[in-house]
Specification:
This protein is mainly alpha-helical. The chain has one domain. Helix content is 77%, strand content 0%. It is built from seven helices and no strands. 32% of the residues are buried.
Length: 177
Protein backbone atom coordinates (compact mmCIF):
# COMPACT_ATOMS: atom_id res chain seq x y z
CA UNK A 1 0.00 0.00 0.00
CA UNK A 2 1.24 3.45 -0.79
CA UNK A 3 1.35 5.84 2.09
CA UNK A 4 -0.68 8.65 0.48
CA UNK A 5 -3.43 6.77 -1.37
CA UNK A 6 -4.25 3.89 0.96
CA UNK A 7 -5.24 5.90 4.05
CA UNK A 8 -7.64 8.12 2.08
CA UNK A 9 -9.10 5.12 0.28
CA UNK A 10 -9.43 3.21 3.56
CA UNK A 11 -11.18 6.18 5.16
CA UNK A 12 -13.61 6.32 2.24
CA UNK A 13 -14.39 2.61 2.67
CA UNK A 14 -14.84 3.08 6.43
CA UNK A 15 -17.21 5.98 5.83
CA UNK A 16 -19.14 3.94 3.27
CA UNK A 17 -19.54 1.13 5.80
CA UNK A 18 -20.66 3.52 8.55
CA UNK A 19 -23.20 5.19 6.28
CA UNK A 20 -24.54 1.83 5.10
CA UNK A 21 -24.96 0.52 8.67
CA UNK A 22 -26.57 3.75 9.84
CA UNK A 23 -28.90 3.96 6.85
CA UNK A 24 -30.00 0.33 7.22
CA UNK A 25 -30.66 0.82 10.93
CA UNK A 26 -32.62 4.02 10.39
CA UNK A 27 -34.65 2.58 7.50
CA UNK A 28 -35.56 -0.41 9.66
CA UNK A 29 -36.52 1.86 12.57
CA UNK A 30 -38.62 4.00 10.24
CA UNK A 31 -40.34 0.90 8.85
CA UNK A 32 -41.21 -0.34 12.35
CA UNK A 33 -42.57 3.08 13.36
CA UNK A 34 -44.45 3.92 10.16
CA UNK A 35 -46.13 0.53 9.97
CA UNK A 36 -47.36 0.90 13.55
CA UNK A 37 -45.39 -2.18 14.59
CA UNK A 38 -43.57 -0.70 17.59
CA UNK A 39 -45.73 -2.43 20.19
CA UNK A 40 -45.47 -5.81 18.45
CA UNK A 41 -41.71 -5.32 18.14
CA UNK A 42 -41.48 -4.55 21.88
CA UNK A 43 -43.39 -7.74 22.67
CA UNK A 44 -41.09 -9.71 20.40
CA UNK A 45 -37.89 -8.23 21.85
CA UNK A 46 -38.93 -8.00 25.49
CA UNK A 47 -36.08 -5.69 26.51
CA UNK A 48 -36.14 -4.46 30.11
CA UNK A 49 -33.36 -1.87 29.80
CA UNK A 50 -31.77 -2.89 33.06
CA UNK A 51 -28.52 -3.12 31.15
CA UNK A 52 -25.67 -5.48 31.73
CA UNK A 53 -24.14 -5.98 35.15
CA UNK A 54 -21.65 -3.30 36.02
CA UNK A 55 -18.71 -5.64 36.24
CA UNK A 56 -15.35 -5.98 34.63
CA UNK A 57 -16.29 -9.53 33.65
CA UNK A 58 -19.25 -8.30 31.60
CA UNK A 59 -17.12 -5.62 29.95
CA UNK A 60 -14.54 -8.26 29.03
CA UNK A 61 -17.25 -10.61 27.68
CA UNK A 62 -18.71 -7.85 25.51
CA UNK A 63 -15.24 -6.89 24.29
CA UNK A 64 -14.39 -10.49 23.45
CA UNK A 65 -17.64 -11.03 21.54
CA UNK A 66 -17.33 -7.84 19.51
CA UNK A 67 -13.61 -8.31 18.91
CA UNK A 68 -14.28 -11.79 17.56
CA UNK A 69 -16.75 -10.32 15.05
CA UNK A 70 -14.35 -7.58 13.94
CA UNK A 71 -11.50 -10.10 13.93
CA UNK A 72 -13.50 -12.35 11.63
CA UNK A 73 -13.90 -9.52 9.15
CA UNK A 74 -10.17 -8.75 9.34
CA UNK A 75 -9.36 -12.45 8.91
CA UNK A 76 -11.42 -12.37 5.72
CA UNK A 77 -9.47 -9.28 4.61
CA UNK A 78 -6.22 -11.13 5.28
CA UNK A 79 -7.35 -14.21 3.37
CA UNK A 80 -8.75 -12.34 0.36
CA UNK A 81 -5.64 -12.65 -1.86
CA UNK A 82 -5.81 -16.44 -1.49
CA UNK A 83 -9.58 -16.86 -1.86
CA UNK A 84 -11.11 -18.17 -5.04
CA UNK A 85 -14.70 -17.56 -3.91
CA UNK A 86 -14.59 -13.91 -2.96
CA UNK A 87 -18.24 -13.40 -3.84
CA UNK A 88 -19.31 -15.92 -1.18
CA UNK A 89 -17.33 -14.01 1.45
CA UNK A 90 -18.77 -10.70 0.20
CA UNK A 91 -22.30 -12.07 0.50
CA UNK A 92 -21.65 -13.55 3.95
CA UNK A 93 -20.21 -10.31 5.34
CA UNK A 94 -22.91 -8.18 3.72
CA UNK A 95 -25.56 -10.45 5.23
CA UNK A 96 -24.03 -10.20 8.71
CA UNK A 97 -23.82 -6.40 8.37
CA UNK A 98 -27.42 -6.17 7.15
CA UNK A 99 -28.84 -8.38 9.90
CA UNK A 100 -26.97 -6.55 12.65
CA UNK A 101 -27.93 -3.11 11.35
CA UNK A 102 -31.55 -4.21 10.96
CA UNK A 103 -31.60 -5.59 14.51
CA UNK A 104 -30.41 -2.24 15.85
CA UNK A 105 -33.01 -0.42 13.78
CA UNK A 106 -35.71 -2.84 14.91
CA UNK A 107 -34.87 -2.07 18.55
CA UNK A 108 -34.83 1.68 17.88
CA UNK A 109 -38.19 1.45 16.12
CA UNK A 110 -39.61 -0.56 19.01
CA UNK A 111 -38.27 1.45 21.93
CA UNK A 112 -37.30 4.78 20.37
CA UNK A 113 -35.82 7.08 23.04
CA UNK A 114 -35.05 4.21 25.44
CA UNK A 115 -33.11 2.35 22.75
CA UNK A 116 -31.28 5.48 21.67
CA UNK A 117 -30.34 6.25 25.27
CA UNK A 118 -29.12 2.67 25.73
CA UNK A 119 -27.04 2.82 22.54
CA UNK A 120 -25.71 6.37 22.80
CA UNK A 121 -22.74 5.78 25.12
CA UNK A 122 -21.21 2.83 23.29
CA UNK A 123 -22.61 2.64 19.76
CA UNK A 124 -20.30 5.30 18.26
CA UNK A 125 -17.24 3.29 19.36
CA UNK A 126 -18.67 0.04 18.01
CA UNK A 127 -19.73 1.70 14.76
CA UNK A 128 -16.22 3.14 14.34
CA UNK A 129 -14.57 -0.23 15.01
CA UNK A 130 -16.86 -2.26 12.77
CA UNK A 131 -16.67 0.39 10.05
CA UNK A 132 -12.88 0.23 10.24
CA UNK A 133 -12.96 -3.57 9.92
CA UNK A 134 -15.48 -3.38 7.06
CA UNK A 135 -13.52 -0.62 5.36
CA UNK A 136 -10.35 -2.68 5.65
CA UNK A 137 -12.12 -5.61 4.02
CA UNK A 138 -13.34 -3.41 1.17
CA UNK A 139 -9.85 -1.95 0.74
CA UNK A 140 -8.30 -5.43 0.78
CA UNK A 141 -10.46 -6.35 -2.21
CA UNK A 142 -8.41 -3.85 -4.19
CA UNK A 143 -5.02 -4.05 -2.54
CA UNK A 144 -3.59 -6.40 0.08
CA UNK A 145 -2.50 -4.94 3.39
CA UNK A 146 0.87 -5.47 4.96
CA UNK A 147 0.88 -7.48 8.17
CA UNK A 148 1.89 -4.32 10.02
CA UNK A 149 -1.08 -2.37 8.63
CA UNK A 150 -3.57 -5.11 9.47
CA UNK A 151 -2.10 -5.43 12.96
CA UNK A 152 -2.55 -1.70 13.50
CA UNK A 153 -6.12 -1.83 12.18
CA UNK A 154 -6.92 -4.83 14.39
CA UNK A 155 -5.43 -3.15 17.46
CA UNK A 156 -7.39 0.03 16.75
CA UNK A 157 -10.61 -1.98 16.44
CA UNK A 158 -9.85 -3.77 19.72
CA UNK A 159 -9.24 -0.49 21.57
CA UNK A 160 -12.45 1.03 20.20
CA UNK A 161 -14.44 -2.08 21.08
CA UNK A 162 -12.97 -2.23 24.60
CA UNK A 163 -13.88 1.43 25.13
CA UNK A 164 -17.38 0.74 23.82
CA UNK A 165 -17.79 -2.29 26.08
CA UNK A 166 -16.63 -0.30 29.11
CA UNK A 167 -19.18 2.42 28.30
CA UNK A 168 -21.93 -0.14 27.65
CA UNK A 169 -21.20 -1.75 31.00
CA UNK A 170 -20.76 1.31 33.20
CA UNK A 171 -22.59 4.27 31.61
CA UNK A 172 -26.37 4.66 31.69
CA UNK A 173 -28.25 7.53 30.15
CA UNK A 174 -31.70 8.50 31.35
CA UNK A 175 -34.20 6.64 33.51
CA UNK A 176 -33.31 3.53 35.47
CA UNK A 177 -31.40 1.89 32.64
Amino acid sequence: MTHQRAPRSLLLHCATTAVAVSALAMMTAAAVITTGSSEAARRLLGFDFDGVNRSLGDAITITAHNTALAGGVLACATALPRLSRRLAVDVLLATILTLNAAAIGFAIGAYRANAIAALAPHAPFELAAFSLAGGAYMQARKQAFTARSLTFIGATCAVLLAAGAFLETYVRLGGSR
